[in-house]
Amino acid sequence: MAYAEDLKERMNPQDLKDLKQLVEFLKEHQVGEFDLERGDLKVRLKFAGQPATIASALPDLSHIIASAPPAARPAAPAAPAAASAAPPVPDSAAAEADLHIVKSPIVGTYYGSPSPGAPPFVSIGDRVDKGQVIAIVEAMKLMNEIESDAAGEIVKCFVTNGQPIEYGQPLFSIKAG
User: Fold this and answer.
1) Domain 92-176 bears CATH identifier 3.40.50.1000
2) Mean pLDDT throughout 60-83?
3) What whole-number distance in Å separates Cα of residue 97 and Cα of residue 83?
4) Which of 29, 101, 120, 153 is the most exposed place for a label (fewest CB within 10 A)?
C-alpha cells in the first residue's frame, strides 16, 4: 500500500485518470504485462494468474485512482496498448540449430525496406553485422530502425512486410559465424 500512496503523490490527476483507463483496458483484454513511459514517469504493470486474480489484485490501486481530484488540465493522448495475442514462437529447428533470434523492441508495423519499392534491408542468406539496420518498425507515425543485435547470416524472417507486430515478437533468426 505504501507504493500505491507514493504513486498517488508522484502522479498528476490526469495521469491517474489515464492509468485507471489503462488498467481497465488491460483487465478487459487480459493483458499480462504492460510498460508505460511518459517523460520521467515509468509505470510497469504485471498481472499474474487468472482474470479473477487480476481483479482482486487491483482494488487498492483502483481506490487511489478513483479518489484523485479532477484533472486541472486538458486530457493527454491515450497510451497505446499492446494486443493480448502471444507472439508466434519460432520453430523448433531454429532453436535446435542454436540460432540467435532478433526480437522486436516495440509494438508497431514491420517494414523490410526503407521505402515502398526499395530493395529490402536484408534477405535470407545475407551476412549482417551487429548494429546493422535490418528493418523498420513504424510506431505512432515514427519510423524506428531495428538493428541486428548479433553478427552472422540471416536464416529466416518470421514476419512479412506491412505486418503488425508485438513487443518481443521474433523478427529474424541469425546463425552466428
Assistant:
1) no
2) 46
3) 30
4) 29
- Residue 154: phi and psi, rounded to 5, are -70, 120
Cell numbers for 25, please give them: 483496458
> Which residues does residue 102 pair with via DSSP β-bridges, in sequence order?
172
One-letter amino acid identity for 12? N
Question: DSSP states of the chain as a string?
Answer: -HHHHHHHHHS-HHHHHHHHHHHHHHHHTT--EEEEEETTEEEEEE--SSHHHHHHH-HHHHHHHHTSPPPSSPPPPPPP---SPPPPPPPHHHHHTTPEEEE-SS-EEEESSSSTTSPPS--TT-EE-TT-EEEEEEETTEEEEEEPSS-EEEEEE-S-TT-EE-TT-EEEEEEE-
- pLDDT tens digit string along 122-148? 999 999 999 999 999 999 888 999 999
Domain ranges of the chain: 2-66, 92-176
